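Hi support team,

I'm opening this ticket because the web form for multi-chain structure prediction keeps timing out on my end. I have pasted the exact lines I submitted so you can reproduce it. The total is 382 residues across two entries, so I didn't expect it to be a heavy job. Is there a limit I'm missing, or should I split the entries? Thanks in advance, R.K.
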Amino acid sequence: MELLKQRIRTEGKVLPGNIIKVDGFLNHRVDCAFLGQIADAFAEIFDISKVDVILTAEASGIALAAICGLKWGKPMIFAKKAKSDNIEGGLYKSDIMSYTYGKKVTLILAKQWLPPRTHVLIIDDFMARGEAVRGLCELVGESGAYLEGIGIAVEKGFQGGGDRLRETGLNYHALAVIDSVEEGNIVFRED
Amino acid sequence: MELLKQRIRTEGKVLPGNIIKVDGFLNHRVDCAFLGQIADAFAEIFDISKVDVILTAEASGIALAAICGLKWGKPMIFAKKAKSDNIEGGLYKSDIMSYTYGKKVTLILAKQWLPPRTHVLIIDDFMARGEAVRGLCELVGESGAYLEGIGIAVEKGFQGGGDRLRETGLNYHALAVIDSVEEGNIVFRED
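Hello R.K., no limit was hit. The queue was backed up. Here is the completed structure from your submission:
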């Protein structure tokens, strides 16, 4: 998605450790109209008519997934992040490593909202090592739902999460893949 | 908002301790089309033309605020919940008590995304004691932005947060106010 790459180039900030911040339009201040355009771009890639529900993880994925849901007329579920000792019954759960928080967190999802044979599209705003998406896939697997696809707005390609998903043959697409950061400049993978 | 009250009546669950769960359409599984109708109801109450940005708190407020932003053509900012020892520079912060987590959390907001004299509408999906909204108001006050109003979808009126806001004379509105729970039945305040 060319417009997304442009905005990352002009508004993204590279911090030490190759952390790429796009918090001016994607995940702190949210440009909701632009997220609507991202939803349109996903709808050109995925067959939305096959999707029953959108699945994401809290917190920042919620804005994009909700906007996709409104534009496509679909409900959305967000997996919550809980400490392992906070788990109740009736939940699917998956342990993931959160690099943001530097610790293990557990994604939880109430079983009643993801019945077997539901057709699920996973949507998230950002992917680096892909732990959140791995956890979401695990929740889908536990539930007996069908995974129709995985759509990510911005992938940090050099951290490997996206390539691992491509190797599995899953219906995975990212709208902008950052391949490297060279002298502070963000280099995108060619489409 | 009559339709919201109807859905709370038919789909809401009352748990011990008068905890009211509406996680089938509002804050776990999210009925995005219905949140669009909630956004329309807010737009009848507040003068959206005066609003520069929508402000909410992570996590569950994000879905409603993002959908409001898309429908109204406005950006949205969500305050993040951080541990007190995780604070960096360049942030507004406000300590609130989280009853969900049973501990103090700090709402943080990057200063650059809320400049002075910005016209802010606070939106959240649920309010009980009103700690999150109190924290958001504090962030607005710190920033020198103007608070145009506070819109809440579901207020638990018997926990006092809403009435405290009404007493202050702030432009506060809730679309459904639950006044009591009697023998498992949810009783709404008359409009």
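A quick check on our side: The mean pLDDT of chain B is 93. Let us know if the file doesn't open in your viewer.
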